[in-house]
Amino acid sequence: MRNMKDQAKPHGRRSEEEQLEKIKTCVFPSSVEATKALAQEVLALLREKEKDSKPLVLGLATGSTPVPFYRELIRLHREESVSFKNMITFNLDEYYPISRDHRESYYQFMQNQLFKHIDIPADNVHIPDGSMGREQVFADCQAYEEAIEKAGGIDLQVLGIGNTGHIGFNEPGSSCDSVTRLITLDRITRQDAARDFLGLENVPSFALTMGVGTILRARRIVLMAWGEKKAAIVARAVEGPVSDVVSASFLQEHPHASFYIDEAAASELSRKKFPWLAGSVSWTPSLSRCAVNWLSTRLEKPVLKLVDEDYNENGLSELVTEQGPAYTLNIRIFNEIQHTITGWPGGKPEADDSNRPERALPYPKKVAVFSPEPFADVFAMGGTINRLVSQGHDVHLIYQASGNLGVPDGEVEKFLRVLQDIAGPNSKDWEKQREFADHLLRMLKGKTQTEPDSQPIREIKGLLRREEAREAALVLGIVPTRIYFQDLLFYEKGRYRQFRPEPADVDKIVKLLVDLQPHQIYLTGKVADPSSVEYNCFRVLELALELLKKEDWLGKCSFWLYRVHEKELEPHKIDMAVPLSPDQLSLKMRAIHQHQSQSTQVLISEDRNREMARLYDHFGLAEYEAIEVFQRWRLFQ
Ligand code: F6R
């Protein structure tokens, strides 16, 4: 391996705010722009190589992250006649043991996501083989290394990053000179894959992976990351120490490694989180609030007790000079935070609303709560939904995707066994039901891991989620006639990590919106991974709203974003905080518990809401039991 430290980094001068970053990090508005830029780089390399009559050797990754990149390569092939005949590829990894026809094998993934749509010769494709016998693994891994060498080494290696910081499957503890080998998968990595394999027990325990050393030998490396879920690990890899605890941090040692990330994945970088520590900033209202919150948390002091020295000694002298003294600044920010708190999420009728998050009129409001799947709504805003209903608003719950992929087989089995029990062994009246239950139970038992659920099983899973949603809504005071199951097609036709919006779904949501004409809309998914259910539901809704943007009623509608799977809103982004009393919190928990098929996520909601209340208390505001929070979303801005 060449000595990378001796080589000059090609980063050129960094801006002041990037100086804490030890890897060149390009932040794009979204994954679309980022993957277009990467695809153009591949194209340029391909042309360069062609001039020298050499093939381009590309290292490839799987998972959700590279999906938009592969779509762009396919588009280039189809629409711009780019040929990939002159490309050789080496994939990073494969589960072990796994057969090549298993629907979750990376072999299948690559065929479906890229290879069968472009003109790369089959012989040019290399993917570690997860089906070989254990005794053959070592020799095969060595042969993989040799094949890379024989091809001339990797010109450009494309990477994603796991929540453990892994690149390829190099879990924590992998050394910087590791080579292609068999590795035991980390518990977090297996949990992340559990949904794909329909249960943790089906996820292979091992994987074959190129080593960190293999990856570092590539001449150019681009790591991509999208969505807020990746923000924390991206920041550790880019700004933290080089260590085998986060394999991606080894990329700091490579002279031509870059991160291509979207805004959401960049949100934990210092330049976004505390830009004042990196240099001079322009103090917007949101940044000032961010800084004061940060100082209050850092010093464990309520906002109103911060003094000028606190600002001066913690890198915020510019802020206190510009907007101080501390006393004035503290009061302003304290008031801002206080004005986010409301027990009237639909607006308080007959009250002065100049300092309230939501306008008083019209009253009552027609409210549309968009939930990507049943559960998201109750999880994030069950207390708020209940308040809206009890304050007389007309609340409608819209479940965009059926959620049938997220139901464990055990739930269906339980339901079918109850059906069998009701039917009894001999009852003539229930003969059909019994046969139906017997048939589906056989289907469940005979299910192989290489195929998805059959349609009848998926339908039952969807029905179970509908029932759970209805029960939960009833607890919160919403009757079934106010519930809409949209069963969006992108979800029914797609699969995890590969969803994309369908035009028919947009039409469906347009129709619903036109029928409802709500005054207030709650939605989520804006900062989620672009291939996730949440993001696609958000995007479908956004596209529908764009089509309706000239409608008068839409101009008067207010929008509130909530978070589910992403990290909770940072305090300075909160525009509305709805406190819950202990009784309201227990009611919400009762609603959440109706979603039996989602039981693993139940407790997180309570913790989150209590944690938010503690934070408000810490800033020096009233001490509540729990708080649900929302960010205002201004349409088309
Ligand atoms: C897969 C691979 C992994 C993934 C990582 C992120 O070939 O190399 O390192 O890139 O686990 O996975 P996603 O993109 O699904 O979040």
Describe this structure in words.
The chain has 637 residues and is α/β, with parallel strands linked by helices. The chain folds into 3 domains: 24-272, Rossmann fold, CATH 3.40.50.1360; 276-338, no CATH class; 366-406 and 453-632, LmbE-like (Rossmann fold, 3-Layer(aba) Sandwich). Helix content is 41%, strand content 13%. It is built from 22 helices and 17 strands. A 7-stranded parallel β-sheet has the order 1-10-9-6-2-3-5, with helices on both faces. Strands 13-12-11-14-15-17-16 form a 7-stranded mixed β-sheet. The structure holds fructose -6-phosphate (F6R). Fructose -6-phosphate is lined by residues 61-65, 92-93, 160-162, 166-168, 497. Fructose -6-phosphate binds at residues 61-65, 92-93, 160-162, 166-168, 497.
The CATH topology name of the largest domain reads Rossmann fold
**Named CATH architecture of the largest domain:** 3-Layer(aba) Sandwich
Strand content: 5-15%
Strand order of the largest sheet: 1-10-9-6-2-3-5
> Globular, elongated, flat, extended or rod-shaped: what is the shape?
globular
Ligands in the model, by name, code or SMILES, are:
fructose -6-phosphate
Classified by CATH, the class of the largest domain is Alpha Beta
**From the alpha-carbon coordinates, what is the Rg to the nearest angstrom?**
27 Å
Number of domains: 3
- Average pLDDT rating: 93
Q: Which regions are unreliable across 5 or more consecutive residues at pLDDT < 50? A: 1-11
End-to-end gap = 49 Å
- The tally of strands reads 17
Helix share, percent: 40-55%
